[in-house]
Structure formats: C-alpha cells, structure tokens
Amino acid sequence: MTDLKAKLHSLCLNYVQQKIDNAGEAIAEAQQAANNETKSSAGDKYETGRAMAQQEADRNMAQLNEANKLKVVLNHIAVTPNSTGVADAGSIVTTDNGNFYIAISAGVLQVDDGSSYIAVSAASPIGTQLKGKRESDEFILNGKKYRLTGVY
Fold first, then answer.
1. DSSP one-letter string for 50-79
2. Which residues form a coiled coil (predicted)?
3. Beta strands in 1-143 (DSSP E)
C-alpha cells in the first residue's frame, strides 16, 4: 500500500506542477503581448490592449499562487502507511462507491494496475465526510450511501 500511496502522491504532484507550468507560460505570454503593444495614433487602443494583457497576467498569477498553495499542502502530506485506521490527509480510502485519496482536489488518478482513485481535498464535502471514519463506517452524501471497505 505504501507504493500505491507514493504513486498517488506523485500523480498529485505532477498535476500541480502542470498547473504551475501552464500558469507560468501564460504569464510570460501575457507579458510578451503587453510588450508588443505599440503606441499608435489611437492612444486609447494602446492603453486598452496593455490593460487587458495586465488583467490576463493577474489572473494567471492568481492561478500560479493557488497551484503553489496546493504544492505546499502536498509537501505536508506523509506517504507513510496509515497505522491508525482512521481516515485523514494522506489516507487511501476504499468504499463501495469508489476509491479516494485524501490530499488535494485533483480529479481521477489512474494507477498502472488499471485502478482509479479520486483525489479529494480534506476540506471538500466528501473529504470532510471521509475524515475520521474507519473501515465499516458509513455516511450519506448527496443521497448516495458510502460504506468504507478500507483505510490505508
């Protein structure tokens, strides 16, 4: 299970790094667009183009900041086995309605053996339901009943 946990953690890190790379590229492109705006006789057009490029850079900077926060969260999650049997950040939780990795919201993660796990934030609705639960515990979310079959 430690190998699986390390693999899921690595997939989450790759997800975050991709977000960081994409935001960095978009910031560079917006800066390049702002630099390429040339002042013409229509001064308002120049100012509008630069303002739009700045807004785009600001949006991408916010995305970069969010991705960096996710990376910090991941860096604080241990990939060691869960010896307590209680679901918490870093836990792999199997249920009768899917498998979950409590870390960050990164969607479905496909593992080499063909299985899939849904990476969820501990603060998400399902993450808050999973936290503190043990094997055989049950909960209902959005009208759907979940029964934990394992906590690792």
1. HHHHHHHHHHHHHHHHHHHHHHHHHHTS--
2. 13-70
3. 92-95, 98-103, 107-110, 116-121, 138-141
Query: What digits encode the pLDDT tens for the residues 76-113?
Result: 998 998 889 999 999 999 999 999 999 999 999 999 99
pTM beyond cutoff 0.70:
yes
Beta bridge partners of 147: 138
Task: Supply the DSSP symbol for 38.
Answer: -
What's the gap between Cα 9 and its chain centre?
11
In angstroms, the CA 147 to CA 152 distance is 15
Beta bridge partners of 100: 93, 118
Residues 6+ apart with CB under 8 A from 114: none
